[in-house]
Amino acid sequence: MNTDVLQKRIRLPELRKKVTSPEAAAEFIKDGMKVGMSGFTLAGSVKSVPHAIVKRAATHPLKISVVTGASLGNDVDSAMANAGIMSKRAPFQTDRTLRNAINRGEVMYVDNHLSETGEQLRKQQVKKVDVAILEAVSITENGEIIPTASVGNNEIFAETADKVIIELNLSYPLEMEGAHDIYCATHFPTAVPINIMKPSDRAGSIGIRIPPEKIAAIVITDEMDTPSQNLPPDAETAQIAGHLIEFFKNEIKQGRLTESLRPLQAGIGTIANAVMSGLKTGPFKHLTMYSEVMQDSTFELIDAGMMDFAAATAITLSDKKSREVFGNFAKYKDHILLRPQRISNHPEIVQRLGLITINTALEVDIYGHVNSTHVMGTHMMNGIGGSGDFTHNAHTAIFVTKSVAKDGLISSIVPMVPHVDHTEHDVDILVTEVGLADLRGLAPRERAQAIINNCVQGEYKTMLQEYVAEANLRGGQTPHVLEKALSWHQRLYETGSMKDEVKLTQVA
Question: Has residue 485 got a pLDDT over 90?
């Protein structure tokens, strides 16, 4: 490695002697350890050392428990799952191979609220981290570790681990120094308020402080993060965005919002990203964001002059947008800030800032209960992520979903969800391509009518109307026909479709 580059990237001289190979660093990982790895929704994920661990396991078998910020990129999750070295995983993942291993019961999966994982480690409510593997842009003269495209749980991993391995990634620009705000929330009973009154406020330092003697190895890498695979906006996501824009316009007209709305949060994935991108067509200005992830849409809004500032714990981008942002980071540096996920998702701050939150539902029932994690109520998709942190504490909690899936074979609006991640008490607004249901101030029976009338179409609308009519005859605050409440899922399991083909044939 070029000496000049090494000196610029590792400015504490005593740490340069710890530069080593991924293979040598992997030897610090032993059987039975709990390993903390940087990475949040593919961003800032460690890359070379985990693959070296997998390679070493072929001759030195081991089982480790892995905890991250959120999902890992660069095939790390799939490589570890395929190798059979992962005994437990927390708190969020998006990898198909790992997901299948979880659903087969081969990997125990702990699906935490993302604000809680680090705190459980810090308070020693769960097993400690033995070794932390963290990605960094650089190490300062003071020994502060400057993270890359995510912070996640890195500062807590660094604090609680016995040893720390640094992956120094040269693909990120040195200009990222100063783009992070590393603050550790204090503990009860002497906890103090977190001094963040708007998204751009700083509360901490630019890097993670780690005693130099705790750093066991430094590995040099030069590989960008796995790009997000979000699909481009389509007609349906444009319709969802349009419904939201009209809702916001009315809120402004009623004096409940201004043209700058409230600070925005948006979950990961195609639909949430597309909906945020769609806000460019609205009459908004001076928008801000306080979220867990900045996606392509965040930078599109910044480029359009509509968003003044965005704070999150990670930057997860498509390949094209990643090259634009990190290739010209100085353009965006004054508009963004990256924080630990304990702070980006902190209930105190979410509530204080009065966020408008936009998250994606897997399915929703007629009363507004949201399933965002479990297919058929049993099989894990990705995890709850930070949606619970934001939804429960939001000024306005919005969920978006297309009304149907699998070419209409599956309805996203069902009589009863078989798994509940967000209860009706927390869900304010539901939006599909069909329309928007404002559930604020409505009783359960009113919520059911609002959802069916505004968010469902075709035969599924008729089926839900019939279900509700029958349920109402049985009475109750929240009427149900219990023997039929999950019949749609049972029919899907047996036939591959939620449609009642028998009834449709009779009608025809």
Answer: yes
Q: Pick from 422, 362, 342: which is nearest to 115 by CA?
A: 342
Residues of the chain with CATH 3.40.1080.10: 3-221, 235-457
State residue 56's pLDDT score. Answer: 97
Query: How far is it, in rounded angstroms, from Cα 59 to Cα 78?
Result: 19
Q: Which residues are catalytic?
A: 292
The pLDDT tens digits for 440-464 are: 999 999 999 999 999 999 999 999 9
Rounded CA-CA distance 330/333 in Å is 5
Q: How far does the chain reach from its first CA to its final CA, in angstroms?
A: 73
SS3 per-residue string spanning 238-275: HHHHHHHHHHHHHHHHCCCCCCCCCCEEECCCHHHHHH
CATH topology of domain 3-221: Glutaconate Coenzyme A-transferase (3.40.1080)
Helices 296-303 & 270-278, crossing angle to 10 degrees? 10
Burial tier of 32 (Cβ tally within 10 Å: 0-12, 13-18, 19+): exposed
Q: Give phi and psi for 221, each to the nearest 5.
A: -130, 170
Domain 235-457 is classified in which CATH homologous superfamily?
A: Glutaconate Coenzyme A-transferase (3.40.1080.10)
Task: Give percent above pLDDT 90 in the chain.
Answer: 94
How confident is the model over 234-286, as pLDDT tens digits?
999 999 999 999 999 999 999 999 999 999 999 998 999 999 999 999 999 99
Is residue 137 within 8 Å of 5, Cβ to Cβ?
no
